[in-house]
């Protein structure tokens, strides 16, 4: 296992910057997921770690060794690609053993081949593909091909395991199963892993830490709980979650100690420290699942008046779509219990506890934090 250090990493193509001064430390045995939309720079970052892309600027280290100019075959990384990249003319056993046979392993040729056969057998058994060792890729299902790709990377016993959208070509049910297998394999081998995906479900399930990227930069690094519960900015807030967090930019008003945002949102007094200037605009965020009827929330942090325009019945719950505000109509999605009496056309007053109220700067999109404001005014 290796510790991966990324310091002010830059990648440009001509005048276009696709990775912009990314800094990140990955500990030995850690499972880190690079998460973001297409074009955010996550795959390019992974390919620079693998040595498949030249580094324009910054430093990449494994432990204390600078890797910027080390060729890919000397980095001891195992990589799994989105398209599996199996050799079609080789059997599963040959695909698994190819990388080992190309290495110069010490010992007599007969002993080395016996060792490789044993490794192939053990890896195939671990991944439950021992019964297809003599098959070629075209004879395998998508899940079996993905297991072969994983096995080919694992059998090298890499210091760093790199995966680029490895589940995107699988159907939904198979994707869930293979995702659980990946978690099991990491628990067993504890190889330092960097995993790229745009699927937040994969990220939140697998990661020790999630690195949310956008436009070539890191927006936030944290545990799955941290990026979900305490998003650093409006991009993270809306990108994480299905549906994403509701975000409304509204004018703030203070009246006799009461705080309101627009004509449809009332905030509890504890938010006064964050919103100390009447008339300023602020972005309020509330996740769809954090709404409840006003009477069910003892100490609401926010009370929101919502006009419902569509209600989806999804079995275990309802999704209500509508808007807040009459002067400035802004869309809202709420997730409620299936037994809720709310229907299309209703005007509902819903509440959320203070811990689930998120406030962001209307200009920068950055999170407003009590501690930041307290320090600034101290």
How would you explain this protein's 3D organization?
With 378 residues, this protein is of the alpha+beta class. It has two domains: 235 residues, P-loop containing nucleotide triphosphate hydrolases (Rossmann fold, 3-Layer(aba) Sandwich), CATH 3.40.50; 134 residues, OB fold (Dihydrolipoamide Acetyltransferase, E2P) (Beta Barrel), CATH 2.40.50.140. It contains nine helices and 20 strands. The strands form three sheets. Strands 11, 12, 13, 14, 15, 16, 17, 18, 19 and 20 form a ten-stranded antiparallel sheet that branches. A six-stranded mixed sheet has the order 6-7-8-3-9-10, with helices on both faces. Helix 5 links the parallel strand 7 and strand 8. Helix 2 runs parallel beside helix 4. The chain is elongated. The C terminus is likely disordered.
Short key terms for the protein model shown above:
OB fold (Dihydrolipoamide Acetyltransferase, E2P), six-stranded mixed sheet, 378 residues, disordered C terminus, 9 helices, alpha+beta, Rossmann fold
User: What order do the helices and strands follow?
Assistant: EEEHEEEHHHEHEHEEHHEEEEEEEEEEH
Largest sheet: 10 strands, antiparallel
Q: What oligomeric arrangement do these chains adopt? A: single chain
Termini separation comes to: 45 Å
Question: What is the β-strand count?
Answer: 20
Looking at CATH, the homologous superfamily of the largest domain is: P-loop containing nucleotide triphosphate hydrolases
How many domains? 2
Q: Tell me what the CATH architecture of the largest domain is.
A: 3-Layer(aba) Sandwich
**Outline, from the CA principal axes?**
elongated
Uncertain spans: 371-378
- Work out the radius of gyration: 25 Å
CATH C-level name of the largest domain: Alpha Beta
User: Level of helix content?
Assistant: 25-40%
The CATH topology of the largest domain comes to Rossmann fold
Q: Helical stretch count?
A: 9
Question: What is the arithmetic mean of pLDDT?
Answer: 90
Which range does the strand content fall in? 25-35%
């Amino acid at each position: 296992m290796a510790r991966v250090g990324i310091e002010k990493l830059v990648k440009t193509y001509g005048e276009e910057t696709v990775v912009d001064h990314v800094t990140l430390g990955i500990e030995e045995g850690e499972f880190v997921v690079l998460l973001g939309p297409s074009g955010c720079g996550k795959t390019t970052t992974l390919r620079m770690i693998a040595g498949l892309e030249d580094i324009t600027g910054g430093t990449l280290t494994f432990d204390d060794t600078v890797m910027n100019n080390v060729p890919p075959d000397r980095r001891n990384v195992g990589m799994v690609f989105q398209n599996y990249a199996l050799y079609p003319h080789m059997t599963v056993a040959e695909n698994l053993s190819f990388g080992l046979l190309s290495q110069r392993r010490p010992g007599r040729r007969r002993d080395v081949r016996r060792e490789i056969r044993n490794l192939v057998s053990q890896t195939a058994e671990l991944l439950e593909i021992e019964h297809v060792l003599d098959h070629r890729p075209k004879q395998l299902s998508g899940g079996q091909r993905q297991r072969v790709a994983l096995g080919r990377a694992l059998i090298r016993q890499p210091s760093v395991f790199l995966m680029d959208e490895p589940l995107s070509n699988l159907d939904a049910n198979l994707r869930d199963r293979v995702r659980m297998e990946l978690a099991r394999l990491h628990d067993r081998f504890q190889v330092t892993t960097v995993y790229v995906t745009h699927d937040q479900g994969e990220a939140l399930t697998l990661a020790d830490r999630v690195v949310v990227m956008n436009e070539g930069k890191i927006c936030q690094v944290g545990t799955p709980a941290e990026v979900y519960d305490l998003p650093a900015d409006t991009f993270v807030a809306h990108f994480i979650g299905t549906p994403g967090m509701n975000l409304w930019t509204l004018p703030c008003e203070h009246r006799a100690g009461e705080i309101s945002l627009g004509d449809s949102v009332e905030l509890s007094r504890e938010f006064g420290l964050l919103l100390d200037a009447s008339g300023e605009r602020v972005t309020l965020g509330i996740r769809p699942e954090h709404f409840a009827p006003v009477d069910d929330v003892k100490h609401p942090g926010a009370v929101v008046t919502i006009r419902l325009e569509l209600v989806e019945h999804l079995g275990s719950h309802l999704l209500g779509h509508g808007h807040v505000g009459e002067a400035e109509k802004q869309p809202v999605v709420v997730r409620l219990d299936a037994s809720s009496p709310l229907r299309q056309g209703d005007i509902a007053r819903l509440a959320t506890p203070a811990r689930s109220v998120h406030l962001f700067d209307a200009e920068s999109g950055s999170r407003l934090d009590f501690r930041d404001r307290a320090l600034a005014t101290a």
